[in-house]
Amino acid sequence: MYSPGFACRIPPAMFKFAKDNVSVLTVLDTRRSKANGLYPIKVQVVHQRAQKYYSTGKELSPEDWKRLPMAKNRELKEIRQSIENSFSLVKAAVEALAEKGDFSFDTLNLRLGKATGGTVNTAFKTKIAALKKEERIGTMLYYDNILKNVEAFGGPKIAFEQVSVDWLKRYEKFLLKDKNHTTVGMHMRAIRAIMNEAKKAGIIRESQYPFGKDRYEIQTGESRKKALTLEQIRQVVTFTDGRETTEKYRDLWFFMYLCNGINTADLVKLKYKNIVDGEICFVRQKTERTTKTIKEIRAIVTPEMQTIIAHWGNDRKPDHYIFPCITGSEDALKQKLMTKDLTKRINKRMKFIGETLGIDGISTYTARHSYATVLKRSGANIAYISESLGHNDLKTTEHYLASFEKEERQKNAALLTNFGEKV
C-alpha cells in the first residue's frame, strides 16, 4: 500500500489530521505527471520537518482534484472514498504511535506494512532501501547479506509472529554450520533491531518479543585480536620482493598503522586539505552518523608518512585525494565496492608478506590493533589511546584492549611451574 516518496509542490489537502507534532494529509503530487497526464494522489506525513509520502494508488488531474471534495460524479466519489480509506489507515497508525510516544517513520512503515500483509522480509527490505537513500552503504550491505541468510533459512514470507525463541535457536544452529559465533551475533543483533521496531509499532506484543533475559540472549564472543610487536612491524615495513605491487600495499598498510590505525574507508577519502599544521584531521565514517558529538581524530604526519605520500600520492592540491584510490565521481555504492576491493588487495599482499616472514594473520585490522597495542605496551595513557582511535568513551577502549597478549599469557603460565625460584 505504501511507498516513501519525496517533497513536492502540492495543492491544498483534502483530509487532514495532526497529533503530537505529527501531521497527516492527502495531497496531489504535481512534481511529475504520469504518461496519461494525471498526477498521483498521496498521503503526506510530516514529523520534525521531515516528510514522507505514501501512495493511495489513485491519480487525477489538478482540475478534478479541486472538484473532488464536493463531486457528485460516481467515479470521483469512489476515488474520494478510496483516498479516505488510505488516509484513515495511515492516520490510525500515526495516532497509535503518537499516543505511545514511539513515533518514527521506521515504526510507521512497519505498522503500515503489517496492515497490508507486511513480513519480516519486507521490514528488512524497507530498512535496506532507507539505508541506501541515506548512503549508509556499509550498513545497507550488512542488512542485505543478513536478509539473504534469513530467507535461506525461513523463506520469502516470514511473519513477525514466527520469530520466536525456538525459531531463533534453530536459525542459530543453521548459521553455525559454516559461520562462527561472532557472525551469529551480528545476525541476531540485526534481527533484534527489526523486532524492536516491530514492538514499538505495535506489530508484536511484549509477550511475543523473543529477545532478553529468560528468552533468547545474544552471545558475545571474544574476538581474537592480533597485534604485531615493534620488531615484527619493522620486518614487515622493510620487506621487499622487488615487486611494485608488494611495496605499494605494504606502504599503504604502514600508513594506516601510523595514521592512528585508520581504516580503509577513511583512508581513501583523505584529501590534502585534511592536512592541517602537520597533522591529518578526519572524522571516522563509522561513527559520523551514529554519535551526537562528532569527534575529530588528529594524527601527526611523520617523516615515514610523508615519504609514502610523496611516492604513492596524488598531486598536492587541497581538493585532491591524498591517494588515487577513488575519484569522487562515483556514487556511494560504487565507492564502497571500490573500498572493499582495495581492502581485499591490501590483505592479500599483507598475508603473502606475513607468510614469507612467518607472521600469522596480517590484515588492515591488524594495523589498527597494532597501533593501539604498541601504545599500550609503551605505557601510553589509555585516555590518549581512546582519543586517537576516535572512541567515544574509555570503556570502549578498555574493551578493545581487554585481552592479554599471547606473550603475556606465556610469561604468566611459566610462573606456575617456576619451582626453582623463590617467590
UniProtKB/TrEMBL annotation:
Family annotation (InterPro entries): Arm-DNA-bind_5 (IPR035386), DNA_brk_join_enz (IPR011010), Integrase-like_cat_sf (IPR013762), Integrase_catalytic (IPR002104), Integrase_recombinase_N (IPR010998), SAM-like_dom (IPR025269), Tyrosine_recombinase_XerCD (IPR050090)
Annotated ranges, domain Tyr recombinase: 223-415
Keywords, ordered alphabetically: DNA recombination, DNA-binding
Provide a Gene Ontology MF annotation, just one: DNA binding
Keyword DNA-binding in the entry? The reply is yes
Q: What protein family does this chain belong to?
A: Belongs to the 'phage' integrase family.
The name of this protein is: Site-specific tyrosine recombinase XerC
Q: Which organism is it from?
A: Rikenella microfusus
